[in-house]
Amino acid sequence: MGSDVTVRRLQAGDVEGFRALRLRALLDTPTAFGSSYEEDSALSEAALLARLAGASAVFAAFEDGAMVGMAGFHPQSGPKRRHRGLLWGVFVAKEQRGRGLARRLVEAVIGHASQHALVMEAGVTVGNQFALALYESLGFRQIGRLPRALFVDGVFHDEILLVLDMEPSAPEV
After folding, report:
1. Under 8 Å between Cβ of 172 and 155
2. At what angle do helices 101-113 and 129-137 cross, to 10 degrees?
3. Of 4, 20, 30, 48, which residue has the fewest beta carbons closer than 10 angstroms?
4. How many CB atoms lie within 10 A of CB 20?
5. In the chain, what are the domains?
6. Helix or strand holding residue 24 (H, E)
7. Does this model's pTM top 0.85?
8. For strand 66-75 and strand 5-9, is the pairing parallel, antiparallel, or unpaired?
9. Residue 54, pLDDT score
10. Count of CB atoms within 10 A of residue 79's CB?
């Protein structure tokens, strides 16, 4: 914890570190993500690289060269939905939590997203009060609840749906 942590957008050379942290996240907190360890472990390098390219982006926190947290943005496509995007995959390694890294990561995603969307959507599994409080403190507002959004280990989990209205700053839509 004594080292500085840097947050930056991931590039193609980061794909293996991204894969490793993503798989760790899916094992660590399976109820926080819409995909499973099995699904993501089968993704090709090309599929992972697509998550890092163009308007899509993943930001990561690094300490002493190790990737310890991440958060992603994915824009919607098509003329009727391209003004919207999704915050996804927010994760900070357990031993790094409580240091403000998730806030820094989500702020980086918001900064990037504001150049590509007018509205950013997010979801939080019911019971994840830390994530909900963080998102609300950054301006997200609750817009609904999706019952039975996830089915993990024989248990259904509801999801709180959130939205962040961003200032129109000439997005590339």
Report:
1. no
2. 50
3. 4
4. 12
5. 5-165 (3.40.630.30)
6. helix 15-28
7. yes
8. unpaired
9. 82
10. 7
Distance CA 100, CA 97 (A): 7
Measured in residues, the chain has a length of 173
Pairing of strands 141-152, 84-92: unpaired
Which two structure tokens, joined as six digits, stand for 107? 């702020």
pLDDT tens across 28-73, in order?
999 999 999 999 999 999 999 988 888 899 999 999 999 999 999 9
Nearest to 89 by CA among 55, 67, 122: 122
CA distance 61 to 105: 7
Res 172: pLDDT: 55
- Per residue in 141-169, pLDDT (tens digit) is 999 999 999 999 999 999 999 999 987 55
